[in-house]
Write a structure and sequence with these properties.
Blueprint (H helix, E strand, L loop, with lengths): L2 H29 L11 E4 L7 H13 L2 E5 L7 H7 L7 E5 L6 H15 L3 E6 L4 H12 L2 E6 L8 H21 L5
Parallel strand pairs: 1-2, 1-4, 2-3, 4-5
């Protein structure tokens, strides 16, 4: 076997090991992370995303006694019926605050939450999002808030193709690396 073929073989083998390692780590971080039951927090923060029941789930957690305040990220158009209903929901036991994140990213959601946490002297928040987004959201929220951050996944099943999961893993790995390197913007 020539030296060039041997080098190519080693590179291909190394690439396969990296891909397999990424798949295993990605599975543990994004597909099947360890789940903890909800705990009492000062607020429940429902991140924007698809309307997959997350708004109602966050409000239901508060109604079940896990918080008195729910922050609903609202990066949607003004006429969004799901957000209109959730933001106009009235409940004497909980406070619902709808906000438009600036920027319209997870970091923008964390920055608004940081303002609220400081204003109200919160020591713990619970963040609700897609299961595959929670690890990255946790990194961002912990950097920005400096308080306890609990992570709770929207209760749903994901039926992604292998290619879609590969995209999710790549996107979440890249986003987590970016968040880790850039940190949270100062006040």
């Amino acid at each position: 076997m020539s030296g060039g073929v041997r080098v190519i073989g080693i590179l291909v083998a190394a690439l396969m090991v990296v891909q397999l390692g990424g798949a295993v780590v990605g599975y543990r971080l994004f597909t099947d992370p360890p789940a903890r039951p909800p705990v009492h927090s000062d607020a429940i923060v429902v991140l924007g995303g698809e309307h997959d029941g997350r708004e109602a789930f966050g409000i239901d957690l508060a109604r079940a006694g896990f918080a008195n305040t729910v922050l609903l990220s609202n990066p949607y158009p003004d006429d969004d019926p799901t957000m209109r209903a959730a933001c106009q929901s009235s409940d004497r036991q909980i406070t619902i605050i709808c906000f438009t994140p600036r920027p319209s990213t997870t970091t923008g959601e964390a920055l608004f939450t940081r303002e609220q946490a400081r204003a109200h002297h919160w020591s713990r928040v619970t963040v609700v999002s897609w299961r595959h987004h929670l690890f990255r959201a946790g990194v961002i929220f912990r950097q920005c808030l400096g308080i306890d951050v609990e992570l709770v996944a929207v209760p749903r099943t994901y039926h992604f193709s292998l290619g879609a999961w590969a995209f999710v893993y790549a996107y979440q790995f890249a986003g987590t690396a970016r968040a880790s390197l850039t940190g949270c913007p100062p006040d």
